[in-house]
From TrEMBL:
Coiled coil: none annotated. Pfam families: DUF1989 (PF09347). It comes from Paenibacillus sambharensis. NCBIfam families: urea_degr_2 (TIGR03425). InterPro entries: DUF1989, UAAP1. This is Urea carboxylase. Residues 8-179 form the DUF1989 domain.
């Protein structure tokens, strides 16, 4: 498949960019134990964005994998997961804050440590959102790609440290023009005492047209309705 563009987001790194619909976005963990936090917005109307509650309740799940879609708060599909080598991506743990990062790994600042300071997810997202005219009020739930967190019968949340192996990948297909905002920072429940240093490769390439038998379209009736809403939107705007 022809490559369009690729980059590597290092540990603590961040990235944002607008990606047209009909693209594949492949994330690959270059070492074991990766976590890539993802926010997703409609590129042409930033008030429309990933809706975590609707995404989960419509698909009867608390985590995402192949066949699942990321729904917007307008009932459309921003992106769908078409390939996944892990089978589980966390949707409930959110991103790290400065306070959490300092408490777990020790205080660091750019002034004292320069590029070796330990970034938090909140700070990374704040910087990247500003680039697109957004701000702290636009913070939202994330999908933590590569991480597995489950709840036991008593409601306690558990992070699975051995879930992500080196070389594992997950591929999203954009169903709308999107603004993707990324932070390569630890999952808040990651119990490792050292700040994880796992680079992640990001590749963007053309996708094949969505077919009638598509696994994401047919995963649930709610998925098909969300796809139909998306197709109607583009039929009226293009």
């Amino acid at each position: 498949m022809r490559m369009s563009w690729s980059t590597i987001i290092g540990a603590g790194g961040k990235w944002s960019g607008r990606i047209s619909r009909g693209r594949l976005i492949r994330f690959t963990a270059m070492e074991a134990g990766a976590n890539m936090a993802l926010m997703l917005y409609h590129a042409h109307d930033l008030t429309e964005r990933y809706n975590m509650p609707d995404t989960l309740k419509a698909q009867y799940t608390s985590h995402l994998t192949t066949g699942n879609v990321l729904m917007s708060d307008n009932g459309r599909v921003l992106a769908s997961i078409v390939e996944d080598e892990l089978g589980w991506h966390d949707t409930i743990c959110g991103y790290t804050t400065r306070e959490q990062t300092d408490s777990k790994y020790g205080p660091t600042t750019y002034q004292a440590h320069h590029n070796s300071w330990l970034r938090s997810g909140q700070e990374n997202f704040a910087v990247e959102l500003t680039r697109s005219g957004l701000g702290m009020r636009d913070m939202m739930p994330v999908v933590n790609l590569f991480s597995k967190v489950y709840c036991d019968d008593d409601g306690r949340m558990h992070y699975v440290p051995e879930h992500c192996r080196a070389g594992a990948s997950v591929t999203l297909r954009t169903e709308m023009d999107v603004l993707a905002v990324l932070s390569n920072t630890p999952n808040p429940l990651d119990g490792r005492p050292e700040y994880p240093s796992v680079p992640v490769e990001l590749e963007v390439m053309p996708a094949e047209p969505v077919r009638e038998e598509d696994v994401c379209v047919n995963h649930r009736e709610e998925n098909r309705r969300a796809f139909e809403n998306t197709w109607s939107y583009y039929s009226l705007t293009e």
